[in-house]
Design brief:
The chain has 150 residues and is α+β, with helices and mostly antiparallel strands. It is 31% helix and 21% strand. It binds iron/sulfur cluster (2 copies).
Length: 150
């Protein structure tokens, strides 16, 4: 009798297990073949910050080098915000903006405190590097690279 009970129990367990497998087989795929495929990033995702281009002059960013973000950053992650006033221009053009992403807490204070909306979070979800310095980004150079890639 015990053998028959075990067989029924085993068969029931097999059917339940197959049910789970079949349901998973036909349900929508939630994973992707990373790194050959990339995931859809939520608009609320925060990676490191990036400088936004000036719509009136795509050769420069919107940053006017006021230093507000550098002063307000609670982690002191923003350094060397420098720029120059080019001939015929009323505002300064940023030539250097170093973000130390190893200490940035992605709090967003810099983005919120910028008076000209020159900063936003990028969607770079897999920044990689072999040493700390690989995560020290010059956001002006990053902007120039993005511009060239378009
Ligand atoms: S997100 Fe916060 S911690 Fe990071 S650079 Fe901006 S102000 Fe500093
Ligand atoms: S607050 Fe804005 S405009 Fe001022 S230095 Fe920072 S990014 Fe540039």
């Amino acid at each position: 009798m015990r053998v028959v009970a075990d067989i029924i129990k085993g068969a029931y367990s097999l059917i339940v297990g197959m049910g789970v497998t079949i349901r998973a087989f036909f349900s929508p795929v939630v994973t992707c073949q990373y790194p050959r495929e990339t995931v859809n990033i939520s608009p609320r995702f925060r990676s490191h910050t990036k400088l936004v281009g000036d719509p009136e002059n795509p050769d420069r960013t919107k940053c006017i080098v006021c230093g507000m973000c550098e002063r307000n950053c609670p982690s002191h992650s923003i350094k060397k915000v420098e720029g120059e006033k080019k001939e015929g221009e009323k505002k300064k053009t940023a030539t250097s903006y170093i973000l130390d992403f190893t200490t940035c807490s992605q709090c967003g204070i810099c983005v919120e405190s910028c008076p000209v909306d020159a900063l936003e979070f990028s969607d770079d979800y897999n920044p990689v590097g072999l040493k700390r310095e690989d995560f020290h980004y010059d956001l002006v150079k990053e902007y120039e690279k993005r511009k060239k890639a378009v």
